[in-house]
Design a protein that fits this description.
232 residues; mainly alpha; Methane Monooxygenase Hydroxylase, Chain G, domain 1
Length: 232
């Protein structure tokens, strides 16, 4: 980005980007820790994920304050205004991603006998895709990389396919093994949370694409029927 006449403006934009990057790192870590706690049945590890969530809330509030200050005092235009508006929206979405990770962590104590549920093997693969989408979209935001943003958008379909497979397998498992219905239902919620993380990463990717190009990625696609997800 070109430097502005007022150095303070550049400093504020850099600070805002730094806060978004910090939020992204915390959200990505929360996802990996929540899934590790789930697979290892580690309640203490899960509780740490829950306890760390307020830090994301505070960072989101700080981004909001800084963005409002920039708009009020600097009256940004064109690329700069798109950047500030994108940061405002992205911070809220990243905070929500952290909430989904927290929700997964909260289910650790509610899942019992998960080692006997074969479909649970799909969850680490889903978490890897979802976490990778969050990681890459924050890199795309930092670099204003429209190409990487498009790659993240395209990856969401793979995550949806994993969720649909998980849904079908868990429903079949519950029908065959009624004693595992409670645990399997909790794992369905975990899968749904991971699928929603992918949706939110895709939303951020759309904003990054707009901030980088000034156009919406969806405008470049031919209209196509949205695939219905399992459970809808």
């Amino acid at each position: 980005m070109a430097e502005h006449t007022v150095k303070a403006f550049d400093d504020e934009i850099s600070k805002m980007r730094g806060l978004i990057a910090e939020m992204g790192g915390l959200a990505e870590f929360a996802i990996s820790e929540a899934i590790a706690a789930l697979l290892e049945n580690d309640s203490e590890r899960a509780q740490k994920v829950v306890e760390a969530d307020p830090k994301l809330d505070k960072l989101e509030a700080e981004v909001d304050r800084l963005a409002v200050r920039i708009i009020a005092l600097r009256a940004p235009m064109a690329d700069d205004l798109r950047d500030v508006i994108a940061a405002l929206k992205i911070s809220g979405i990243v905070e929500r991603i952290g909430d989904y990770a927290k929700n997964i962590a909260k289910r650790v104590d509610e899942v019992s006998g998960k080692a006997k549920i074969k479909p649970v093997t799909l969850i680490p693969a889903m978490a890897e895709i979802a976490g990778g989408m969050v990681h890459d979209i924050l890199n795309a935001y930092a670099a204003r990389d429209a190409r990487l943003a498009v790659e993240v958008i395209e990856r969401d379909e793979k995550l949806d396919n994993y969720y649909n497979t998980l849904f079908r397998n868990l429903v079949a498992h519950m029908m065959e093994n009624p004693a595992t219905i409670s645990s399997a239902a909790q794992l369905l919620f975990v899968g749904r949370n991971l699928e929603r993380i992918g949706d939110h990463a895709t939303n951020v990717a759309e904003m990054v694409y707009f901030a980088a190009t000034g156009t919406y990625h969806s405008d470049n696609d031919k209209p196509k029927k949205k695939k219905k997800k399992a459970g809808e």
